[in-house]
Each structure stands twice: as C-alpha cells, then as structure tokens.
C-alpha cells in the first residue's frame, strides 16, 4: 500500500527541491529591480555585502563565506573591479593570495543599497521574526544536506530512501 508520500513522490509540486528552487528564483527576481539602479547583479551584491560587513579579504576567504569555488568567484570579482567598486592586489605576505578591497566608489554604494533589505522584507509578505526563523531553518537544511553529503562521501542519496 502506497503512503501519501510515495503516491505523490514523482509529482513536481510535491518536490521539496522544486519548492526551494522556485522560491529562490522568485526571490532573485525581486532583487533584480532593486539592484539594477546600482549596476549590480545578485551575486555581485552578495560580494559587496561581505566587503561592507567585513572589509578587505582574500579571494579564498570570500569564496568560502559565499560557499563558492574561487574559480566561480573570480569572473564576478573582475566585473566588480571593472565597475570600479573593488580593487584586487597581491598579499605581500603570500604572493599566491589576492586581497579584495572596496574602492571609494564601492564604499559609497553601500549607502545607496541600504533600502534593499527592507524592500525584500516587504516583498516577502513576512514579518521580520518570521523571515529570520525561515532563514535559520533554511540554513539548518543546508547544513543537514552538506553533512549528509559528506557522510556519504559526496554520493547521491540512495534510491531506496524516500526524499520529497
């Protein structure tokens, strides 16, 4: 006898991954008109948030905080540098490292971006405590998936395990 989970397991609307994917897509679309006047894409905005928050850091440090490979981050940084928002220079203590820092224009952009979090909160239809709880839950889910993948040596979830 099929359980309710098994009966709908192969329907798109019952997939956890689709709900997460489509929600993330909707959020990204909400950021686009807010970031367009700043000349930033969403991933560029994330880099700028880190630099505004933490100051200059290595490419590797940025990649680690953003959960990206350095090779994925490098083209993004080159575009930000071309926009005059960041500078990249070799670490004098370790020539293999590049240090990324804000330019004066990059620091000035922070003031223009201050209204974005409030606009996103409004668009979410949630109150701040509700959105923070959801953020924390999603962070926990990400950590669980990361841990499960590490335990399995990077292998996919076995086919005999039910996953919505």
Largest sheet: 3 strands, antiparallel
Sheet/helix structural class: mainly alpha
Instruction: Spell out the helices and strands N to C.
Output: HHHEHHEEHHH
Trace the largest sheet across and list its strands.
1-3-2
- CATH architecture term of the domain at 11-114: Orthogonal Bundle
Radius of gyration: 20 Å
Runs in which pLDDT lies below 50 for 5 or more consecutive residues are 158-163
Question: What is the CATH third-level topology name of the domain at 11-114?
Answer: Arc Repressor Mutant, subunit A
Mean pLDDT: 89
Number of strands: 3
Instruction: Please give the share of residues in helix.
Output: 55-70%
**CATH-wise, what's the superfamily of the domain at 11-114?**
Winged helix-like DNA-binding domain superfamily/Winged helix DNA-binding domain
DSSP helical segment count: 8
Characterization of this structure:
The longest helix is centred in the C-terminal third of the chain and has 24 residues, at 128-151. Residues 158-163 have low confidence and may be disordered. Strand 2 (86-91) and strand 3 (94-102) form a beta hairpin. The chain is mainly alpha-helical. Strands 1-3-2 form a three-stranded antiparallel beta sheet. It is built from eight helices and three strands, in the order H-H-H-E-H-H-E-E-H-H-H. The protein starts with a helix and ends in a 13-residue tail after the last helix. The chain has a domain at 11-114: Arc Repressor Mutant, subunit A (Orthogonal Bundle). Helices cover 62% and strands 10% of the residues. Helix 4 (59-66) packs across helix 5. The relative contact order is 0.11.
């Amino acid at each position: 006898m099929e359980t309710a989970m098994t009966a709908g397991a192969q329907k798109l609307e019952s997939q956890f991954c689709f709900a997460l994917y489509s929600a993330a897509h909707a959020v990204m679309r909400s950021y686009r008109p807010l970031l367009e006047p700043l000349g930033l894409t969403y991933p560029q905005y994330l880099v700028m948030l880190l630099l505004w928050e933490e100051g200059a850091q290595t490419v590797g440090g940025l990649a680690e905080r953003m959960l990206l490979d350095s090779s994925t981050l490098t083209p993004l940084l080159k575009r930000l540098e071309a926009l005059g928002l960041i500078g990249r220079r070799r670490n004098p203590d370790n020539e293999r490292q590049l240090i990324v820092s804000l330019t004066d224009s990059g620091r000035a952009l922070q003031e223009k971006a201050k209204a974005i979090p409030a606009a996103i909160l409004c668009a979410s239809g949630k109150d701040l405590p509700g959105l923070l709880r959801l953020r924390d839950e999603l962070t926990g889910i990400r950590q669980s998936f990361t841990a499960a993948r590490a335990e399995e040596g990077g292998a996919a979830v076995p086919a005999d395990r039910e996953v919505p």
